[in-house]
Design brief:
Layout lengths: L4 E3 L2 E3 L13 H8 L8 E3 L2 H8 L8 H15 L2 E5 L10 E4 L4 E5 L6 H20 L7 E3 L9 H8 L7 H11 L4 H10 L3 H4 L4 H9 L6
Parallel strand pairs: 4-6
Antiparallel strand pairs: 1-7, 2-5, 3-4, 5-6
Helix pairs in contact: 3-4, 3-7, 4-6, 4-7, 5-6
């Protein structure tokens, strides 16, 4: 069970030796996530909000439509998206999804380019979909969506260099989704419409857990 389901408080970009105090630290990120630090933290509801935040020209299709599709689904699910100053993130962290509050946060210093923004949105959005796969976003569990053998080896090898071994199954498929157009949008739509386990067949261990916790019937 531990291999396929993991109780994570944070799903974020990795770092093995994190600063813990002051700005640019895990402490600062925790303060933001708990909504105790809100200065400069702005909720995003559409692609137009991103353009307004950066005071630049808006996204063009297909990114514009994909971004708004994800935002619409996230809104239905109950996940809020914020963009926040870089000081709230440890060095190198582009975004974070919190499985308890069901919010995710984008690092404004590292997602200025729309291509990078979309990669982070897809990645963190995939973690929200993993939350849904584990029964409900109202718990603190996440489950892999794809069978591990379906994830391209390239993404697994890349993630193994940056994340603890225990996080690799979840992060490998999130990395894959982050660079694949429409993959996260499809998963979020399945969650938003209550068809998660119809669109994506749960792995045997995940299915067992869902049955034991009354999310699915035998």
């Amino acid at each position: 069970m531990r291999k396929l389901l993991l109780a994570l408080l944070l799903s974020a970009s990795p770092a093995l030796a994190e600063p813990t105090k002051g700005w640019y630290s895990m402490d600062a990120m925790g303060c933001m996530i708990l909504r105790e630090c809100t200065d400069g933290v702005v909720e995003i509801k559409s692609a137009k909000d991103i353009a307004s935040y950066y005071k630049k020209a808006g996204m063009m299709d297909p990114l514009y439509s994909e971004f708004n599709s994800m935002m619409k689904a996230l809104g239905k699910i109950g996940v809020k998206v914020y963009i926040a100053p870089e000081k709230y993130f440890p060095p190198g962290h582009r975004g974070v999804y919190h499985t308890v509050s069901n919010n995710f946060y984008l690092n404004d210093g590292l997602v200025k380019r729309y291509s990078t923004l979309m990669a982070v949105m897809r990645h963190e959005g995939w973690h929200a979909a993993q939350d849904c796969m584990a029964g409900s976003i109202d718990n603190s569990m996440i489950a892999i969506i794809k069978p591990e053998e379906d994830v391209p080896e390239f993404w697994r090898e890349m993630v193994e260099k940056s994340y603890p071994a225990s996080a690799v199954p979840w992060e490998a498929e999130a990395a894959w989704a982050g660079r694949t157009e429409g993959m996260t949008a499809k998963a979020l739509e399945a969650c938003a419409t209550g068809k998660m386990w119809e669109v994506y067949k749960p792995t045997p261990m995940t299915r067992q857990w869902l049955i034991e916790n009354d999310y699915l019937k035998e």
